[in-house]
Amino acid sequence: MMSDKTTFNSGLMQFLDASPTPFHAVLSLANALTAAGFKQLDEREDWQLVPGAYFVTRNDSSIVAFRVGTASLAESGWRMVGAHTDSPCLRVKPNPSLNRHGYFQVGVEVYGGALLNPWFDRDLGLAGRVSYRAKSGELKSVLFNSESAVGCIPSLAIHLDREANNSRSINPQTDLPVLLMQAEEGQPKPEFKTLLADMLLAQGVDDIEAVHDYELSFYDCQGASIYGLKKQFIASARLDNLLSCYVGLEALLAADPSQHSVLVCNDHEEVGSMSSAGAQGPMLKSVLRRVAGDEVSWQRAIANSYLISADNAHGIHPNFSDRHDANHGPQLNKGAVIKINVNQRYATNSETSAMFRQLCEEESEPVQSFVVRTDMACGSTIGPITASAIGVATLDIWVPTFAMHSIRETAGSDDAFSLSKVLRRFYCR
Nearest to residue 312, comparing CAs of 217, 397, 218, 212? Predict the structure, then answer.
């Protein structure tokens, strides 16, 4: 039994706030799956699978959850939903310490295609994974989240740049170092790893001898919220694409346990997916091959399977409607969007599209279509990558949003819940 929209959106916002990085997103997903009775598997061990629910993680940042049903896998195939755990952000450099004019800053790299202007003048937290040498000599890793603001990127005042509203551009090397503190005169210059060890100690990690390395990102401390005179919009960081991860999770948890169903949430989509944990890597195929058993069963199962790749779409912006094809401008709160591209930047074809439209009709949920303007470049996602890697019939669908890749995005408060109902029916088909 699925929740009502209000309860669903409350859970979605809690998930968004608890998941500032892919590592935290996977932890949140794993905790929810475990609470629902899914058993965690280790890729290094032998699997003895019986009908039931399982999940496996890789790099702490990607996850595959699946149900082993009672029907013949070779004849029924899998019903799969795919999403990604990463979002554009600012990542701390390996040697980031900058001591300038009495201030301590850290240098950052831009991860993915981030919209940079909104990162200025925000309360920024810091989160990610830290690897360290313990006092015992053992190498350990721990997830870190400051949970409150530790930095900011102050804008240059307009008095010092009178053309800022006309022509200010951003140099990510020189304009984006994050301000953390003032450096006291006469004291040793601060070093980031030393400060990081102190922050970990304050959170109870008391066995650190030396921080070796880290994958840390800054994030907006402002939590997810519902806004508008009629509460029609959800605003949050990382809607692209944690919204789809949560929608897929809720649908999987409500799915028919007798069916063979899969949720895959890959890392590194925003930077091309080419990693051991990304959609271009072997993770999903490796898991499915182990579940299927022999080669013929694997091939038959894939031939009978479907994948719905779920991500975010560009909702038609009322201030910039000319950026859309006039007949394909998705509106917020008007349902999921089928994304189509004749050059295969999306994996949708007429059969997978028709299948999804039928699911929407059965659930009495709206559905929309999107193609990019013919004179504009088209993006892509994990759909075509996964389809080509494992040979599965695939559909790319998205929830319409504003300000994609900004530090804070907007979606309709109806759309995620609507999509979850359609995906639940898909899993039970």
Answer: 397
